[in-house]
Amino acid sequence: MIGSIRGRVIRKRASEVLIETNGVGYEVHVAINCELPREGNDAFLYIYTYVREGSLQLYGFMREEERLLFSRLLGVSGIGPRIALATLSGLSVERFAAAIEGEDVAVLSRLPGIGKKTAQRLILELKGKLPSIVAAKDSEYEDALSALLTLGYKKPDIITTLDTLKKKDIQDIETLIREALKYLSEGTGN
Predict the structure, then answer these.
(1) Distance CA 115, CA 121 (A)
(2) Of 57, 62, 75, 150, which sits most exposed with the smallest number of CB within 10 A?
(3) How far is Cα 62 from Cα 47, in angstroms, rounded to an integer?
(4) pLDDT digits (tens, 9 = 90+) for 122-173
(5) Are 54 and 92 in a shared domain?
(6) Residues in Cβ contact with 160 at an 8 Å cutoff, skipping those fewer than 6 apart
(7) What is the DSSP string of 40-92?
(8) Does one domain contain both 156 and 120?
(9) pTM (2 decimals)?
(10) Cβ distance 47 to 65 under 8 Å?
């Protein structure tokens, strides 16, 4: 089983990348929001090897937590690799885990391929099983969410904004709220 790949990015597309290592090119499926280096540069991906009915597919992730969540999602009845990858494209690992633990059906059912019943099944099967994934940053996320709700912004707009800002790896709550206010005032919020 392949656990990770380090090699040169030969070709990038929205949901897949071709990585060459030691003269072999590996086609790897990735989340749409996966921030890979430019073609010609080296990349490292954690790999989930998916084998089914004579087919072998590789799924790549920038963080080990993403690979772990992908694996857990595949263990849920009715969730295949396409929906699991779309889930990781739609929400950060931390936000997904918070939605599961908070039983937030509305957030989960907005993901591609996941309706209300599937969201409820995800909660039922994953609640309490993601503590190793939920990071300390999640409390900062919730604090920022609460502060922005108090200021009158709409929850869906705040969630979208905070998920976008999580990719920037902001270190403190004050900066997170300040950046969120800038983003929301540009037209996504009130």
Answers:
(1) 10
(2) 150
(3) 9
(4) 999 999 888 666 554 566 777 888 888 889 988 778 877 887 787 676 767 8
(5) no
(6) 188
(7) TSEEEEEEEEEEETTEEEEEEESSHHHHHHHHHHHTSTT--HHHHHHHHHHS-
(8) no
(9) 0.69
(10) no
